[in-house]
Amino acid sequence: MLPITRRRGIILAMLTALMLLSLPVADTLHLRVISINDFHGQLVPATYAWSRGRPVGGVSALRQLMDSLEQECGCPTLRIDAGDEMQGTLLSNLVAGRSSVEGMNLLGIDIAAVGNHDLDWGQDSLRARQRDARYPWVAANVFDSVTGRRPDWARPYQILPIAGMRVAVIGYVTRDTKSIVRASRVAGLVTPGGIEPIRDALEDAHRANPDFTILVAHAGAFCDNGECSGEIVDLARALPAGSIDLIVSGHTHSLVNTVVNGIPIVQSLSNARAVGVTDFVKPDGELVWASVRVDTVWAERPRSAVAARLLEAYEPQVEALANRVITVLADSLMREGRQYALGNLLADALREVGQADIGLINNTGIRSDLPAGPVTYGQLFQVEPFENHVVRVTLSGENLQRVLEHAVSRGRIDVHVSGVRAVVDLDQDRGQRLQSVTLDSGKPLDPTAMYTLAIGNFLKNGGSGYSMLVPLRAVNLNILDLDLTIAYLQSLPRPVHASSVPRITER
């Protein structure tokens, strides 16, 4: 039997279809919202294991699909992006995101949320990209930590006129922004979560008497068998009834197509792999949600002329570097589950090249998969795009236990390690989940002994909540995480094999 939420969606779609057939055209106010999220500089297509070699995404295919969806509808259309436009590929990062913003202009984006990674080059860079954009960016829950006011680049909402209608779009960025972005880039900012930080924006927007109100949120969820949980689900539950007609979400790179508190939420994976399509009908002044779907962005047509001109302006700058073959992999390395071979390989690189007892990398720092066969610099860049400096920290066994305990504090295993093996019980209370830690030598971890740990400076500076590392003594190894990984891979015989044996296991 279908999950309840899916059955309800099918029934709503059927009922709406019947209503559309019975309503005269003059009585129907129709709006189509085409949405993307977490573009991450994916200006060119990519292939994935699930696509079976078929290219997916890229700005040309995305523009072609968006145009087709607008023509198919023949109705007023709004194109929305839910943030994290720029960070993630050489084509984007080498120009601090400028090429990605030009790509958004090409797509005809009408409005975008500010994502946490849109702050990766700092506030001045974000202001520059906003000046490049032909669309507004919105973020209602960003404030100066001293004045309590929103910074000049954080517009809380925008009223968009579309075919005689008024659409209010309110912005939101994940409450975890401060722990995700390098501290120096977000110094002086706070990003509180929940409804209170955006309540004034919501009320102001409603005073403009819009026909539709949309929340574009760089905060997401995960869904399993029709049950969804996450920051955006919590926020949707807290919103006043009838205050929001649609939430376009992002950040978690997952598929979300659900209804919470009467509000449809759509999130279209990431990296231009899919678009969300939401249709509204408003007969006789009463809003009816018609349908929500998510379409794959297949990229099998030739580049459009306008997309070709955009890409030709940037591709020569990165082509030689991006296409340089670094090594050959025996097997595809996919990010599947919480422990996987790619994470083990990166942790091994940290320990070996960093000359430390232990290597550790957080899962959210691993941004892409790697295919079997020749692996290029460009592919490795997409795995580790954040340019973290590697440091070697000296810490006690007791402090290392705190680090590993924090790694499972959210009820899941969020890191990969090298040099140690750990057993955890995720059913235990927070702070009590780490059951045992053993060195590769077979000896148990000694809480009083001193060890060395190779990590990125993002974690050393307290990123992702690792505040226990901040006061510890560290040596900067003067090498970026990507360069360290490349050095390690080039030291291994080809084809490279990576161990898939989990180093952190559940009891």
List strands and helices in order, with pairings.
Blueprint: H1 4-22, E1 30-36, H2 59-73, E2 77-81, H3 90-93, H4 98-107, E3 111-113, H5 123-132, E4 137-138, E5 143-144, E6 157-162, E7 165-173, H6 177-180, E8 189-190, H7 199-207, E9 212-218, E10 222-224, E11 227-229, H8 231-238, E12 246-249, E13 255-260, E14 263-268, E15 274-281, E16 288-296, H9 305-322, E17 325-329, H10 341-353, E18 358-362, E19 373-376, H11 377-383, E20 389-396, H12 397-407, E21 415-418, E22 420-424, E23 434-439, E24 450-456, H13 457-460, E25 474-480, H14 481-491, E26 504-506
Parallel strand pairs: 1-2, 2-3, 3-4, 7-9, 9-12, 12-14, 18-24, 22-26
Antiparallel strand pairs: 1-15, 5-8, 6-7, 10-11, 13-14, 15-16, 17-19, 18-21, 20-24, 20-25, 22-23
Commentary on this structure:
The chain has 507 residues and is of the alpha/beta class. It has two domains: 26-313, Purple Acid Phosphatase, chain A, domain 2 (4-Layer Sandwich); 325-506, Alpha-Beta Complex (5'-nucleotidase,  domain 2). It contains 14 helices and 26 strands. The chain has helices at 4-22, 59-73, 90-93, 98-107, 123-132, 177-180, 199-207, 231-238, 305-322, 341-353, 377-383, 397-407, 457-460, 481-491; strands at 30-36, 77-81, 111-113, 137-138, 143-144, 157-162, 165-173, 189-190, 212-218, 222-224, 227-229, 246-249, 255-260, 263-268, 274-281, 288-296, 325-329, 358-362, 373-376, 389-396, 415-418, 420-424, 434-439, 450-456, 474-480, 504-506. A six-stranded mixed beta sheet has the order 4-3-2-1-15-16. A six-stranded mixed beta sheet has the order 6-7-9-12-14-13, with helices on both faces. The chain has a five-stranded mixed beta sheet with strand order 21-18-24-20-25. Helix 10 (341-353) packs across helix 14. It is globular.
